[in-house]
Design a protein that fits this description.
Blueprint: H1 14-27, H2 33-55
């Protein structure tokens, strides 16, 4: 089955793992961990975009993400 999704691996600290586990239990108990991580990434990206727009900055305003 073909898919447009890309697979990648990340490393997390023990503190991040504990936070993710708590988030899974409180908010994503019916979802897979994958779905939870996708949703958290989307929410984070949307929040950063909103911050950029509020500051009047463009798409690559963050030097960490600019290429």
């Amino acid at each position: 089955m073909a898919t447009d999704l890309k697979r990648f691996t990340i490393s997390v600290t023990p503190e991040m793992e504990a936070d993710l586990d708590a988030m899974k239990q409180r908010h994503y108990y019916r979802d897979t961990r994958n779905t939870m991580i996708q949703d958290l990434i989307i929410r984070g990206l949307e929040a950063l975009k909103a911050e950029d727009e509020a500051k009047g900055q463009g798409q690559d305003a963050n030097p960490k993400t600019a290429t």
